[in-house]
Amino acid sequence: MRYPIKLVVKKGKVRKDGTSIVFIQYCYSETQKPLLNTGVYIPPSYWNKKTGRISPALPEEYGLVKDLEADLTEKLRKAEDMVAHAINDKKVCPVQFLKANFHLSGKWELTQMAETKQNLDVYKQIEKYIEDKETSVKKCTITVIRAMKSHLQSFEKWRKEPITFDSFDMDFYEQFVKYLTYDIQQMRKKDVVRGLMINSVGKTIKHLKSFLRNRMGKKIIPFFDLSGYKGMEEDVDAIYLSWREISVIYHLDLSEKTNLIKYRDLFVLGCLTGFRFSDYTDIKPDEIRNGMLYVSQTKTLTTVIVPLRKEAKEILEKYKMEMPQVSNPNLNFYIKEIARLAGIIEKVKITHKRGNRIIEETREKCDWVMSHTCRRSFCTNEYLDGTPVDLIMAISGHKTERAFRKYIKADQLQKALMIQKIWANKISL
Fold it and tell me: Which helix (H) or strand (E) holds 263?
């Protein structure tokens, strides 16, 4: 990827000796396209407008083509570096800076050149992007952006080729998606897992696109087409826990494994409120008023009011209205052990895609439980209990009923339960 700078020969600008100047044109905007004299003069008929190069047939009296091309390339790169420096400086107009400094004698200051290259380092720009975002998004979003950065770094190491802003073409996108799908290594406690789920790949691409568009919008890098960077998502055939199973977990005796108690309490609180992990683990005392919970949801930044169930209030009072802070990976790890102790061990088969392959995995139900199971369980249980969808959505934060129904996957389950009740009243064969 290059800045919008090119070599041009202007028609009608022919000197008395029949030659024209080869200019460097910086296309800053529709109205600002300054021309810089390169000091190279050739007859316009020997300029290939399509390739932006001098014709090999140029007579030697005007100079050797090889030497002229080398001179033009050096000056073009010099102009690009100057524009990059001005854009990163933010206090300097790139057009004015280029006009003022391009024709200075000698080479442009090497320290400035080095600074320019450093400022255009992809990972340094991601960190600046994070700094810009920290005041407008919550910590969980910053965590996802940092994960995107980490995935880029592991991909760079895997393919043994530096990632620069020039790298982001369609070949890069296709190779990156393939790497994320099949090759990236994840450490899950003691196990090494290769490849991400489709939704995780899609989330990485989504935040990469947002980062690149942000840098374009700030004119740190020139615009380029990202329409080929397609998002991806799949319906996940995930499990939920019934109210009975949640009750068993809530009343589980953990006196011999006290380290699990805070994870159990957090999980049950999530099941009783329907919040996302970042919300139910970050409840503050001032968000609880008159038996109601007032929470600004992390993802949507909307405030929801949830009546507290007796059990939820008991949990909050146990921790003086401020829940202990734990990491999502730790909760995901320990809640599986808790669910196993609660006897939630029926066999469950989950089907998902990895690239173009269909993967089927059968595990005990406890092994499928994770932090997001709380939210899915709340929504599904309330739906099956007959709570109006719009009331559940007011708490869950879903914007459309279509998204809600897709999320809980309860339609087929509800129909099956209804058929089960009808069959129960039929005469047995």
Answer: helix 261-273
